[in-house]
Design goal:
The complex is a heterodimer of chains A (about 190) and B (about 325).
Chain A: H1 2-7, H2 10-31, H3 35-55, H4 59-84, H5 104-127, H6 129-137, H7 142-149, H8 154-175, H9 184-191
Helix pairs in contact in A: 2-3, 3-4
Chain B: H1 2-36, H2 52-62, H3 73-90, H4 108-118, H5 120-130, H6 133-164, H7 169-174, H8 186-199, H9 211-214, H10 224-249, H11 257-260, H12 265-286, H13 292-319
The chains are: A mainly alpha (about 190), B mainly alpha (about 325).
Chain lengths: ~190, ~325
């Protein structure tokens, strides 16, 4: 075990340490009690995954992972947590899960089953030779990703964008102050 | 192995030059503002007051590095570090001259955008960890402002990517040998500059730390070395935005022929950056601060459509073979 570890080249060593970091950080996300700390661990986990992507020959995906997930989506999460004034210690307000009110078994069995299925699929996929060959073959640059997105996967991209648009309109609708709409100018004037 | 050592040396030299330059900018700024406002500015320490930054540094090191008892100690401590590190990391992809530059990353431009978006954490976490109202208000403004302006910043540079066909900053500079991109991407440049000022929270976009309303915004509770890191990060990011503007739109170290032979490429690059830094300082002295809602609606109502139009027109011209 140790001898194989020493034989790894620096690149592989970086890859495995990033992967380990991602796993540890993800564990800290679900075990932590402080909401903001948990979110920060999630950021660390995403950054570690980005490093893995980069080392596997997908620099464009790595860049997007950092910009979109760590840089935009999680910032919004942190923003929301800050707005609600959550953070310090959430255990006091957490739903009662010590077994008296909620059936503990129901709580974890479903997610556990789903996660197990995913894990089996993942291990099977990684072990099959096809994926191994693809992982070690070549670098996927931005151009190739773009050609795929606007070629064979065009429909999927468009559907995803429709979904996001629907979300956007929904968000706008909910965020609108009540009663504002018909006479917008007058309402704004009243609010100052 | 020797190559690695050489690289490490190069990185060390670049950092060792960047940090004093950022510190010097504090003096340059105060002096220039003084001159433009018809007064002298700091001129006591050393010739022309040039050692003012050194005096400031000594003073700030001597101050008590206070962590408020009501704060989240860990996050409070890492927040300023994240800011300074993210800005310094961005310099890794800047090509300073034909031979100097830490990394020719193929996704250099994306790396710059990624670091810019990560540096928001520094401000947001500083405000949250301080556990004080002024700081929280400041960091909420910072989050809304930077997340919005990042969108336009990313869109504005896509015109450059379309024309040069690369995310690699060195290749982008080399593609400008026949003419700087400012000729075809003027709108993109203006949007990039405005978004850049917003990203580095300089006046007129310094609402996260607006003294008149929020005492000092997100860094209200900070003192000593941690405050110095925020300060350093701000001046470094002014330098970074200037450097990126030069690389993307003003041909990096390149100059048209009669001028190119006068000075080495690195000197031309630094001179161009200095012009931009001066412009940033001039903006600070001359523009009033907008209201926060005005800032956001300006971004989403004018900057976003403009950036999209710029991208569309550039793409159409490129497809039509207008650029040859």
């Amino acid at each position: 075990m140790i001898s194989t570890f020493i034989q790894l080249n620096p690149l592989q060593l970086t890859f495995y340490s990033a992967a380990l970091l991602a796993i540890v950080a993800s564990l800290k996300v679900i075990t932590g009690k402080n909401t903001v700390h948990a979110l920060l661990y999630l950021v660390v986990s995403l950054l570690a995954v980005a490093v893995c992507f980069y080392l596997m020959g997908a620099p464009f995906a790595a860049g997007l992972e950092v910009i979109v997930y760590a840089g935009a989506i999680l910032i919004l999460f942190v923003f929301a947590i800050m707005m609600f004034g959550l953070g310090q210690d959430e255990t006091l307000h957490a739903p009662n899960i010590d077994g008296s009110k909620v059936n503990k078994f129901n709580l974890w069995f479903g997610p556990f089953l789903l996660a197990l299925l995913l894990l089996i699929e993942l291990v099977y996929a990684i072990n099959s030779g096809e994926v191994q060959a693809k992982l070690t073959s070549n670098t996927i640059d931005a151009k190739q990703v773009g050609m795929l997105l606007y070629g064979p996967y065009l429909l999927a991209v468009e559907i995803a964008s429709f979904l996001l648009l629907a979300g956007l309109i929904g968000g706008y609708h909910f965020a609108k102050p009540e009663g504002v709409g018909l006479d917008r100018k007058k309402d704004l004037g009243e609010h100052g | 192995m020797l190559e690695l050592l050489f690289k490490l040396l190069e990185i060390t030299v670049i950092i060792a030059l960047l940090i004093p330059i950022a510190a010097m900018l504090v003096w340059v700024e105060r002096r220039m503002i003084g001159i433009w406002q018809d007064r002298l500015g700091p001129n006591r320490v050393g010739p022309f007051g040039i050692l003012q930054s050194l005096a400031d540094l000594l003073k700030i090191l001597g101050k008590e590095d206070w962590i408020p008892p009501f704060s989240d100690r860990l996050v409070f401590t890492i927040a300023p570090v994240i800011g300074a590190v993210c800005v310094l990391m961005s310099f890794a992809v800047i090509p300073f001259s034909p031979s100097i530059g830490v990394s020719d990353l193929n996704i250099g431009l994306l790396f710059f955008l990624a670091m810019a978006s990560l540096s928001v954490y520094s401000v947001v976490l500083a405000g949250w960890a301080s556990n004080s109202k002024y700081a929280l208000l400041g960091s909420m403004r910072a989050a809304a402002q930077t997340v919005s302006y990042e969108v336009f910043m990313g869109l504005s540079v896509m015109g450059v990517v379309l024309l040069t066909g690369s995310f690699n900053l060195r290749e982008i500079v080399l593609a400008q040998e026949s003419g700087w991109l400012i000729q075809t991407q003027f709108l993109g440049f203006i949007i990039f500059l405005i978004a850049g000022i917003a990203e580095s929270h300089r006046l007129p976009f310094d609402l996260p730390e607006a003294e008149t309303e929020l005492t000092a915004g997100f860094h209200t509770e900070y003192s000593g070395l941690k405050f110095a890191l925020f300060f350093l990060g701000e001046y470094l990011s002014v330098t970074l935005i200037s450097a990126m503007s030069v690389v993307l739109f003003f041909g990096g170290w390149l100059m048209p022929e009669p001028f190119a032979s006068w000075l080495p490429p690195l000197v031309w690059f630094i001179l161009k950056i200095l012009i931009f830094v001066m412009f940033f300082i001039l903006l600070r002295t001359s523009l009033p601060r907008p209201r926060f809602d005005q800032l956001l609606s300006f971004g989403w109502k004018y900057m976003l459509p403009l950036a999209l139009i710029n991208l569309l027109v550039t793409a159409a011209f490129k497809l039509g073979g207008f650029y040859g």
